[in-house]
C-alpha cells in the first residue's frame, strides 16, 4: 500500500507536466491530429487523474475519431469529478446523439443548458435531439429511416455511397440481393421492375447490412449527421 498515491491529489510536478500535455493535446486538436490528441490527454490523465478537463477534452478527440462509446465514458468520468461541468454534459449529448441515444442526449443537453443557459450550441443540438426523438417515436419512423430526397441530393451521401460500394462486403450483399430480387421465387415475373419491389429490396438490403455490419450503418448515419450537427468549431478548455 505504501507505494499508492493518495487519491486526494497528485504530485505537484505531475500536475505541471499534465497541464503541458493537455496544451499539447489541444494543439493536436487544432491541427486535426485527433489520435495524437487522445494520446496526450491519456498521459495527462495518468499523471493527474482527478482533472475533469482532461477527460472532457479526450472525449472530444474520441468523438472526432467516431469512438463514441469511449467519448461517453470520458464525459461520465468528467461529470463524476465535476458535476457542474457544462461542457462535459454538452459533449456527452453529442456522443449520445451519435449512437442514436436521443432520449439520453436530450437529458444531457438540458443539464448542460441548466448550467450554461446562454450556450447556442447546446440549444440547437437539444432541438435536433428532440426532433430525432420525435421522428423515432412516430409511427412512420424506423431506426433505418432517412429523408431520401435530401440524401440523394447530398454530395456527402453520394461520396459515402460510392465508398460503401467499394467495400467487398457491400458488393457481396448487393449481388446477393439483386439475384434474389430478380431471380428469386418471391420476386414474381416483374422482379425489380416496379417501385414497391425496389423499395422492398432496399429495405432488405439495409436490414442485411444492419445485421451483418451495423458499423456501416452507423458510419453512414454519423457521416450524414456530422454535416448537420453544430458544435464542431468549439474551443477546448
Automatic annotation (TrEMBL):
Pfam name, any one: TPR_1
SMART domains: TPR
TPR repeat extents: 18-51, 52-85, 86-119
Record's keyword annotation contains Repeat: yes
Cellular component aspect of the GO annotation: membrane; TRC complex
Domain of life: Eukaryota
Keywords associated with the record: Repeat, TPR repeat
GO terms of biological process kind: post-translational protein targeting to endoplasmic reticulum membrane
Any one Gene Ontology molecular-function term assigned to this protein's record: molecular adaptor activity
InterPro entries: SGT (IPR047150), TPR-like_helical_dom_sf (IPR011990), TPR_2 (IPR013105), TPR_rpt (IPR019734)
The protein's name: SGTB protein
Amino acid at each position: 500500500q505504501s507505494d499508492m498515491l493518495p487519491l486526494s491529489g497528485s504530485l505537484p510536478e505531475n500536475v505541471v507536466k499534465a497541464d503541458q500535455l493537455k496544451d499539447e493535446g489541444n494543439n493536436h486538436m487544432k491541427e486535426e491530429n485527433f489520435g495524437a490528441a487522445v494520446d496526450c490527454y491519456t498521459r495527462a490523465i495518468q499523471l493527474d487523474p482527478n482533472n475533469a478537463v482532461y477527460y472532457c477534452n479526450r472525449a472530444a478527440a474520441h468523438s472526432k475519431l467516431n469512438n463514441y462509446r469511449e467519448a461517453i465514458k470520458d464525459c461520465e468520468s468528467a461529470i463524476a469529478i465535476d458535476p457542474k461541468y457544462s461542457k462535459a454534459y454538452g459533449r456527452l449529448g453529442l456522443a449520445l446523439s451519435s449512437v442514436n441515444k436521443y432520449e439520453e442526449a436530450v437529458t444531457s443537453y438540458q443539464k448542460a443548458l441548466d448550467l450554461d443557459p446562454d450556450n447556442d450550441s447546446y440549444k440547437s443540438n437539444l432541438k435536433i435531439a428532440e426532433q430525432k426523438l420525435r421522428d423515432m417515436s412516430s409511427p412512420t419512423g424506423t431506426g433505418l429511416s432517412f429523408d431520401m430526397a435530401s440524401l440523394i441530393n447530398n454530395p456527402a451521401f453520394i461520396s459515402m455511397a460510392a465508398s460503401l460500394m467499394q467495400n467487398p462486403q457491400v458488393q457481396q450483399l448487393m449481388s446477393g440481393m439483386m439475384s434474389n430480387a430478380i431471380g428469386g421465387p418471391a420476386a414474381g415475373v416483374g422482379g425489380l421492375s416496379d417501385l414497391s419491389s425496389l423499395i422492398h429490396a432496399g429495405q432488405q438490403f439495409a436490414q442485411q447490412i444492419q445485421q451483418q455490419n451495423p458499423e456501416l450503418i452507423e458510419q453512414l448515419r454519423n457521416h450524414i449527421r456530422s454535416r448537420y450537427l453544430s458544435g464542431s468549431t468549439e474551443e477546448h478548455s
